[in-house]
Amino acid sequence: MESIEVALAEHSYQISIATGNLERLGEHCRALKLGQKVMVVSNPTVFGLYGERAMAALKQANFEVSHCILPEGEQYKTLASIEQIYDLALEHGLERSSTLVALGGGVIGDMTGFAAATWLRGINVVQVPTTLLAMVDSSIGGKTGVNHPKGKNLIGAFHQPRLVVTDPQVLATLPEREFRAGMAEVIKYGIIGDRELFDRLERATSLRQQDIDPELLSTILTSSATAKAIVVSKDEHEQTGLRATLNYGHTIGHAIESATKYVVVNHGEAVAIGMVAAGRIAVALKLWTAAEAQRQDAVIDKANLTLDLPSNIDLDQIVTTLKSDKKVKAGKGVFILPSGIGDTQTIAYEPTSTAVNVVSDPLIKQVLTAMLPIAAT
């Protein structure tokens, strides 16, 4: 069993990674001395696979357990879904000592965390990630929220979990596309600060789900969770700029998701495309070499993630969406760009600038145009 600490000034917590952890969920929660009432939040697919096991583990630990099933998909990551959680929290009498358990991927984790942050001004949340992406990234760090029609995650709060319980066994039922999405976040950790992880991914013959052996999977889970924990511990609320490095690939990635209404590409696929774009912008700004960008793209391709934009995407819509990013102030923002394998720089985003050392809209459109798929002839 691996136990990784997210060390915070207040509310530190553990990430527990172990085969069979789902059956130990109640035991883990009981050790935290949580309140009596627990509500499991999930979607129909995940709850059908693991809901009864999770609830049984909680009941065995003498918790009073209820559940809330939300529609599946990023397009349902809205305030309307949060209201469903509130309604059932009220119906089941959840109190300030009560706990929400997020059983699912990043969408369920974000929504459950936001509901926990806002119900009765804050109750406990325990994250039980069931996708690779959630295990290595979204379940850790306390970022919670929902989407606005004009942008991703514009509505949210920081609300740290009491515990993250990861059971690698549940990945056996994860669709291949969802596994690929998680690999995008894993590759991100290699690029932004873990050269050893990147080298390990680069040496692998294949990064497809069926080809990853238990030893490599263990490395992926522990290295990624440790990397996220270290960054969050040093910059919990994005005050020093360190945590912003975790947004590598996400600035353009989020804009792609929004421009395609969250139904064409999933989050990890959008992040992979965003990393390719960021890598090529970095080459244009002479922050790193074309050879380094090609190494990154080769690892992304090895994970069977696309290097191209979706066909028929509106590049103007992507650029427009960038201007409503959470981190834009007075019309200006920042991009996290690579300056080498394992290192990044924060570069100013000034949409109309003609300076050669900033990211501008013309440069973004130039790079994105080259990433459009070649039409069949």
> How much of the residues is beta strand, in percent?
15-25%
How many domains, in number, for the residues?
2
Through-space gap between termini: 54 Å
> What is the overall pLDDT average?
95
Shape by Cα distribution:
globular
Strand line-up in the sheet with most strands: 1-2-9-6-5-3-4
The major beta sheet can be summarized as: 7 strands, mixed
| pLDDT < 50 stretches | none
CATH class type of the largest domain: Mainly Alpha
Number of helices in the DSSP assignment: 13
CATH topology of the largest domain: the name is: Dehydroquinate synthase-like, alpha domain
Total beta strand runs: 11
Q: Could you state the CATH homologous superfamily of the largest domain?
A: Dehydroquinate synthase-like - alpha domain
- Fraction of residues in helices? 40-55%
CATH-level-2 architecture of the largest domain = Up-down Bundle
Structure overview:
The chain is α/β, with parallel strands linked by helices and 377 residues long. The protein has two domains: 2-173, Rossmann fold (3-Layer(aba) Sandwich); 176-370, Up-down Bundle (Dehydroquinate synthase-like, alpha domain), CATH 1.20.1090. The protein contains 13 helices and eleven strands. The strands form three sheets. It has a seven-stranded mixed sheet with strand order 1-2-9-6-5-3-4, with helices on both faces. Strands 7-8 form a two-stranded antiparallel ribbon. Strands 10-11 form a two-stranded antiparallel sheet. A hairpin with a 2-residue loop joins strand 7 (143-148) and strand 8 (151-158). Helix 5 runs parallel beside helix 8 (214-234).
